[in-house]
Every structure is written in structure tokens, then in C-alpha cells.
Write a structure and sequence with these properties.
- This is Peptidase.
- It comes from Streptomyces glebosus.
- The protein has 150 residues and is an all-alpha fold.
- The protein has a single domain (2-64, 71-144), classed as Double Clp-N motif, CATH 1.10.1780.
- 55% of the residues lie in helices and 0% in strands.
- It has 8 helices and no strands.
- The chain has helices at residues 2-14, 21-31, 33-37, 44-53, 86-101, 109-117, 123-130, 135-144.
């Protein structure tokens, strides 16, 4: 819940109409040491946070006022989640699916990170790529993890 709250605050602070996957990534990096550890403690975390912090003053301005729809998941108007981009809503669903696959009732932060990484067209993945994160390696690492935290 702290990640979702942080993402909502970021969206509001940035003047965005919807929470998107980059807001979720920012919330994950700020909130969970296990997420930061998934990057092998390298300088990538600092670079990622730098890009995300710059979002409202430079990097990411091209997203301002637009809806994130990566196209990875069909957008259904009746299934839309108010205040969330389609890609962010799909990532939340994906995190829950990942948790259910291990018979957990709640998704953890690593579940959400894995779901974000699963959408190659998302804003979160764009930020990860700009920070020189090897997406395939991160996805492989996350698939090997068995997150138990909520």
C-alpha cells in the first residue's frame, strides 16, 4: 500500500492525470530495500531515481498530459481503473497474478517490479533502459526470486 500511496502522490505532484508505471517504479525504489537489492546494489538505482526525480522538470515531460497505454494489454473502457493508466492497472493485475501463482493472497513489491518489467512498452521499462538496466537480466533475476513480503 505504501508503494501505491507514493505513486499517487508522485502523480499529483507531477501534475499528471493518471498514475503510470514510472510512478509505480519510483514508489517501489523509494519504499522497498528488496527492490533496490534486485539491481545488485549498482549505480543503476541512483541513476533510476535521478531520471524519475527529473520527470517533472525535464525528462518525462513528453508524457505530461498523455495517457500511458503501451498496447501490451487491450484497453477496455468498462474495465478501466479511474486514475490509473491502462499499463499501470495491468501491472497491478500482473503482480497479483504472480502472487497467486505461488498461492499468496497479496502481491509483494518484487511481484510488482516483475510485472512492470514484463511490459516492454511501458514508461517504467523506458526509464529502466535509459538508466542502462539490462531488462532481460533483471527479469531473469526476478523470476528466480520468491518474494514473501507484502
Amino acid at each position: 500500500m505504501s508503494v501505491i500511496s507514493a505513486a499517487r502522490r508522485r502523480a499529483t505532484r507531477d501534475g499528471d492525470r493518471q498514475v503510470d508505471t514510472a510512478h509505480l517504479l519510483h514508489g517501489l525504489l523509494e519504499s522497498d530495500p528488496a527492490v533496490r537489492a534486485a539491481f545488485d546494489g549498482g549505480p543503476q538505482v541512483a541513476r533510476l531515481l535521478g531520471y524519475l526525480v527529473q520527470r517533472s522538470i525535464g525528462y518525462g515531460l513528453q508524457w505530461h498530459g498523455t495517457v500511458e497505454d503501451s498496447g501490451a494489454v487491450p484497453v477496455v473502457a468498462e474495465g478501466a481503473v479511474p486514475g490509473w493508466s491502462p499499463a499501470a492497472a495491468a501491472a497491478l493485475d500482473g503482480a497479483l497474478d504472480r502472487a497467486h501463482a505461488r498461492y499468496a493472497t497479496r502481491a509483494g513489491c518484487l511481484d510488482l517490479l516483475a510485472a512492470l518489467v514484463d511490459d516492454p512498452e511501458s514508461r517504467a521499462v523506458e526509464v529502466l533502459c535509459r538508466a542502462s538496466v539490462d531488462i532481460a537480466r533483471l527479469a531473469h533475476r526476478l523470476d528466480g526470486e520468491r518474494p514473501g513480503q507484502d
